[in-house]
Write a structure and sequence with these properties.
Number of domains: 2
Largest sheet: 3 strands, antiparallel
Order of helices and strands: HHEEEHHHHHHHHHHHHHHEHEE
């Protein structure tokens, strides 16, 4: 397709900025690729190939068989947890695709997002994670002293991690220092009152430190075939977890030397009697995590709702019917379903609600038990840690499956033109000159064409699900796409 060079650069600049923004804020590789392809497609570009790795987005455009490919590579910045920015990037994407935003305006907005001051200042972010730590302790039936200690310890470890990050210290060391601080706080609680279960402080801090890791996106990439990106994210999660383990083990060695007992005892309850505490703690963890990750205040109640439902499912099913790994997988499945529905209705990223829902499911107590047993019985401690890893994979797999199912069913009931649902599919899906539908069938019948040309190289890697495409029909490209579109080819 003949394309003006200036406009081609502008389209690629917009696509690269949004792709980098989504990747930096934790979106899965399939979602990043699908979004970039939507942008190039809505601009009238065909023969575009997108490849996403752990820290890079690569876009290549081939105008025709005799032309030299136009390729751009953009490296992603350090990972952050800012769902307000993630929402802003998705808003720009959908506004541009729908024709509400001109190309230059979309570029200007995408460029300004990283420079936009956060909605919540650092003290409020620290307070949010501190509340989350206290709520996590409450979910284990902790008393006032332990809840207060967990709240303060969680706030301190988040503040120390933020300080180290601003000093360009690798996050591995921040995790290690946070683990040591958690054990130190538990030791202080044990010295103040030896009769309380001070180990809950450590467990709560472990939950706070692990909640932001990219395990969901890593498992989503792995189960959908994006193995390179999945390997990088899994290794990142593993190294940060090892950093936490190093800090906790160091604190435990100090506690043993001082003769302080912070072992896990049977006061961590799993029964229906604690349902009220689970509800309160779920609300606290959802709101605390939302504030800490810059979730808009209007969305906080919905995030708290998802976290509470997830916690209740896990708690009740574990206590009555199934082993914990199956209970958390079921809770993750429901979380994925709810996340897609709420994301589409509220026009917010699905990842926001997924991360909020999995917070009460993090196996903090199993990790701590495993670390305690490693000093006495390596095989028993390893078994506990393996069980924690099994639960983590079950949570992520359940959440991904829930999103997959909901994203396949929801388009039949959607009333809006553009979906905020995730695109979860294999990178080897080949599109043969089909068209990407932005709206439901009823919208197309009522309002006329709502289609754009898909951009891909036949046989190259893409990330768009076959369910998102219709058979070739003779429609014009969107009104906001300037330039002359290529003639459609026959579908084999």
């Amino acid at each position: 397709m003949p394309t003006d060079s200036v406009r081609l650069h502008a389209v690629f600049d917009l696509a690269m900025r949004i792709g980098e923004g989504l990747l930096t804020n934790g979106a899965a590789a399939s979602e990043v690729t699908a979004t970039v392809l939507r942008i190039t497609s809505s601009s009238g570009l065909r023969n575009v190939s997108v490849q996403v790795t752990f820290d890079e987005v690569v876009i290549s455009y081939l105008a025709d068989e005799t032309s030299t490919p136009f390729t751009r590579v953009r490296s992603a910045a350090a990972r952050v947890q800012d769902f307000a920015r993630l929402s802003a990037f998705e808003d720009i994407t959908h506004g541009y695709i729908a024709g509400d935003l001109p190309l230059e305006e979309a570029r200007r907005m995408a460029e300004s997002i990283p420079r936009t001051p956060p909605a919540y200042k650092l003290p409020l972010v620290v307070l949010g994670f501190a509340v989350m730590g206290g709520a996590a302790a409450l979910s284990f039936g902790a008393g006032t002293l332990v809840v207060l200690a967990a709240t303060v310890a969680a706030g301190f470890l988040i503040a120390s991690g933020e300080l180290l990050g601003r000093k360009q210290i690798p996050p591995f060391y921040g995790q290690a220092i946070g683990g040591f601080l958690a054990v130190a706080a538990a030791m202080l609680v044990s010295l103040i009152n030896p009769n309380v279960n001070s180990s809950i402080v450590v467990v709560s801090c472990i939950i706070v430190q692990l909640c932001g890791l990219s395990s969901i996106a890593a498992v989503q990439d792995a189960v959908t075939g994006w193995y390179v990106t999945a390997a990088g994210r899994i290794l990142e999660t593993l190294m940060l977890t090892i950093g936490l383990v190093v800090g906790v083990r160091g604190g435990m060695l100090l506690a043993d030397g001082l003769g302080v007992d912070i072992s896990v005892n049977e006061s961590i309850p799993i029964s229906l009697i604690t349902i009220a505490w689970v509800v309160v703690s779920g609300i606290g963890m959802g709101i605390g995590f939302g504030v800490g990750t810059q979730v808009p205040w209007r969305v906080l109640p919905w995030m708290a709702l998802v976290a509470t439902i997830s916690a209740l499912i896990s708690h009740v099913v574990t206590g009555l019917l199934l082993e914990r790994v199956y209970a958390v997988t079921l809770a993750g499945l429901v979380t994925g379903l709810l996340a897609v529905v709420l994301g589409d209705r509220l026009r917010r990223p699905t990842l926001l609600f997924v991360m909020g829902g999995i917070i009460p499911l993090v196996p903090g107590s199993l990790i701590y038990r495993g670390l305690l047993l490693l000093g006495e019985d390596v095989s028993a401690g390893g078994a506990q840690l393996f069980g924690a890893a099994e639960i983590a994979i079950g949570i992520a797999a359940g959440a991904v499956l829930g999103q997959l199912l909901a994203s396949r069913v929801l388009p039949y009931f959607r009333r809006s033109e553009i979906a905020y649902t995730p695109s979860i599919s294999s990178p080897f899906t080949t599109m043969r000159r089909r068209r990407l539908s932005l709206g439901s069938r009823s919208l197309r019948r009522r309002n006329g064409p709502q289609l754009v040309e898909p951009s891909t190289m036949t046989g190259e890697m893409t990330a768009l699900s076959p369910a998102m495409f219709d058979e070739l029909e003779d429609f014009d490209p969107p009104a906001h796409a300037t330039g002359t579109a290529a003639d459609p080819e026959e579908t084999p």
